[in-house]
């Protein structure tokens, strides 16, 4: 199971990024645990300077804007 953290204050883009992660994982058959991180200090501590940010198994893979669907699928498949 992959541990995913979606960093963001709760804006529409952050919600969309979270939904993209869940939908892509379901389509790939990858089991994930998604945690939404909204605390500004925790977001900064993770190194996210622009939201939404996505970390997979503790590694920040994306920050700022919505991720590319193909890249997201690649990250989840790795």
TrEMBL record:
Gene3D superfamilies membership: Glutaredoxin (3.40.30.10)
Domain of life: Bacteria
Protein name in UniProt: Glutaredoxin
Keyword set, alphabetical order: Disulfide bond, Redox-active center
Tagged with keyword Transmembrane: no
Entry annotation: catalytic residues: 11 (nucleophile), 14 (nucleophile)
Thioredoxin-like fold domain residues: 3-76
Organism phylogeny: Bacteria, Pseudomonadati, Pseudomonadota, Alphaproteobacteria, Rhodobacterales
InterPro entries for the chain: Thioredoxin-like_fold (IPR012336), Thioredoxin-like_sf (IPR036249), THIRX-like_proc (IPR005243)
Pfam annotation, one family: Thioredoxin_3
Cysteines joined through disulfide linkages: 11-14
């Amino acid at each position: 199971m992959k541990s995913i953290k979606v960093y963001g204050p709760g804006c529409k883009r952050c919600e969309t990024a979270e939904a993209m992660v869940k939908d892509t994982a379901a389509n790939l058959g990858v089991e994930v645990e998604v945690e939404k991180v909204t605390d500004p200090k925790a977001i900064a501590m993770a190194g996210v300077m622009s939201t939404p940010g996505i970390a997979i198994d503790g590694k920040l893979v994306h920050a700022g804007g919505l991720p590319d669907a193909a890249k997201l699928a690649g990250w989840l498949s790795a």
